Backbone:
């Protein structure tokens, strides 16, 4: 849970590489979490791009 939370905080800082750096730092102190290293990059790197494109398109059409 700590590794997953660290990854979420890293995504909140703005980029997926920061999330991975946070998770790697936490795995030095705690046990590794393969689930976190699978979920966070997929959500941070893939799903967010699709949602951002949809949200930006929605608001551009709303302003027109």
Residues:
């Amino acid at each position: 849970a700590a590794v997953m939370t660290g990854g979420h905080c890293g995504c909140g800082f703005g980029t997926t590489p920061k999330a991975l750096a946070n998770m790697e730092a936490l795995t030095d102190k705690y046990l590794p979490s393969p689930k976190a290293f699978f979920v966070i990059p997929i959500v941070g790197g893939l799903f967010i791009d699709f949602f951002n494109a949809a949200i930006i398109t929605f608001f551009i059409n709303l302003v027109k």
User: Anything to note?
Assistant: The mean pLDDT is 86. The chain has three helices and no strands. Residues 2-63 form one domain. Residues 34-63 form the longest helix (30 residues).
